[in-house]
Design brief:
The chain has 320 residues and is an all-alpha fold. The protein has helices spanning 2-34, 39-51, 53-64, 68-93, 100-120, 124-127, 136-160, 172-204, 208-220, 222-233, 237-262, 272-288, 299-319, and strands spanning 96-97, 133-134, 265-266, 296-297. The radius of gyration is 19 Å and the shape is globular. The two termini are 23 Å apart.
């Protein structure tokens, strides 16, 4: 009975967390609109940050409670899900055409982010530390890279001259209510997810890393899944792929950066295999962009991604 209650709390937590992020984005975007901030700026700040809010809230709670495996597993697992599962499903639904900037700048930046993370969490081999840790200094470095990425995004949007979709504007009092409700939803949902995930792992005798890499990672990736699927159905490849690529960069540079600054994250070397899988998945994504139809993710390549994801889930279950 306790296990069923924990799973119910986990599901409710995901719903409250994701709905909270959605409401917060609407409220904050409306406030920005009321102050005549351009849509493109709102989209590149409020909306972009908002899609990573579920991962960030779960990570902050995990780090504060000392559940470091859950914090690392959530981000690495979420990024793996974004590429292998979400891009796989999206490409099967509709082949995706990518722009030159995405292939030559943003995907390589994804690879750099994962490799940099791998080096940072294994720095005991480089400087003689007793244990591996994503320290506050590491967090500052990650945030620095994130600021550079933001500069690139703003510069690219200015060159392309593209605007985001129309943003709804509500009365100021209603927008403030949305922000308060959104923050409350994120707070409650994040706490319920972390607490129930820890309880489930304890009852089933599974590691928190396994729960983070699988269930929690998939749950916090639901906003990206919904956004990419809708974009694919509307034949908007730029949004479908940009959502995933941007989210993966946000997750490592922003979420792990902020989390490690708040509370340094201890790291178990056993998760190096998962980081390696994320590197390979990202490199495979880049390689697919140079096959027969360049800058295009085909259906068969999406199927390969899905097969890889199922295989990875099987590996996680085997490893426990």
């Amino acid at each position: 009975m306790t296990l069923l209650i924990d799973f119910a709390v986990l599901v409710i937590g995901f719903f409250v967390l994701i709905k909270g992020a959605d409401i917060l984005i609407d409220g904050a975007s409306s406030i920005g609109k009321s102050f005549n901030i351009p849509n493109v700026v709102i989209g590149l700040t409020v909306v972009a940050f908002g899609t990573s809010l579920p991962e960030m809230v779960v990570n902050i709670y995990s780090a504060i409670q000392g559940s470091y495996d859950l914090a690392i597993g959530n981000i690495v697992g979420s990024n793996i899900s974004n590429i292998l599962l979400i891009l796989g499903v999206t490409a099967v639904m509709s082949p995706l055409n990518l722009g030159h900037g995405t292939v030559w700048k943003e995907i390589p930046l994804n690879i750099l982010a994962v490799v940099l993370l791998g080096v940072m969490v294994n720095d005991c081999m480089l400087d003689g530390k007793i244990f591996n840790q994503l320290s506050r200094i590491d967090g500052v470095v990650l945030i620095s890279f994130f600021i550079i990425f933001l500069y690139y995004v703003f510069a690219a949007s200015k060159v392309k001259g593209k605007d985001t979709e129309e943003i709804d504007e509500y009365p100021l009092y209603k927008s403030i209510i949305f922000v308060v409700l959104g923050v409350s939803g994120l707070t409650l949902g994040g706490r319920w997810i972390v607490d129930s995930a820890i309880s489930i792992s304890s009852i089933l005798g599974l590691s928190q890393g396994f729960i983070g890499l699988s269930i929690v990672a998939l749950g916090t990736s639901l906003p990206e899944l919904a956004t990419s699927v809708v974009a694919a159905l509307k034949k908007n490849s730029d949004l479908a792929v940009g959502n995933i690529v941007g989210s993966n960069i946000f997750n490592i540079f922003w979420v792990l950066g902020i989390t490690s600054i708040i509370n340094p994250i201890n790291y178990e070397p056993s998760y190096n295999i998962d980081i390696l899988i994320l590197v390979l998945a990202t490199v495979l994504f880049w390689v697919f962009m140079h096959t027969k139809n360049r800058y295009r993710l085909e259906r068969y390549e999406g199927i390969i991604f899905l097969v890889c994801y199922v295989s990875y889930m099987g590996f996680l279950i085997w490893r426990g």
